[in-house]
Amino acid sequence: MNHDAILALVLETARAYRLAMNAEGEEAIEPDTSLFGPGGALDSIGLVSVVIELEQKLSDLSGTDVSLMNDRAMSRSHNPFRTPRALAEYAHGQLSAKPAV
Question: Cα dist. 11→51, 79, 97, 101 in Å?
């Protein structure tokens, strides 16, 4: 999957979660929207839910297991969960590092 397709998937997943939580009146989630923290679009449960659903979607589409919440993500100097764009870049890197099936 290319970066743009992953970004679209991140945005779709985060927006669908917010819609399911009846948060449609809040600010739209865009590529550089803060996902978590003060003023973030998601609370901690929302972030975990979105990342788990995204892992499942990416695994289904790529045919390989994808783990985004791991020691590597938590030890990075730049939080991969800060914006949809950062999450997409991290996910793309994780998929690119996997051997081709």
Answer: 11, 17, 22, 26
Contact call for residues 7 and 86 (beta carbons, < 8 A): no
Question: Tens of pLDDT along 3-59?
Answer: 999 999 999 999 999 989 876 567 789 999 999 888 899 999 999 999 999 999 999
CATH level 3 topology of 3-97: 1.10.1200
Nearest to 16 by CA among 44, 36, 42, 55: 42
Side chain identity at residue 92, one-letter code: H
Tokens of 7: 């970004």
Cβ neighbours, 10 Å, residue 18: 20
Cβ–Cβ < 8 Å for 1, 74: no
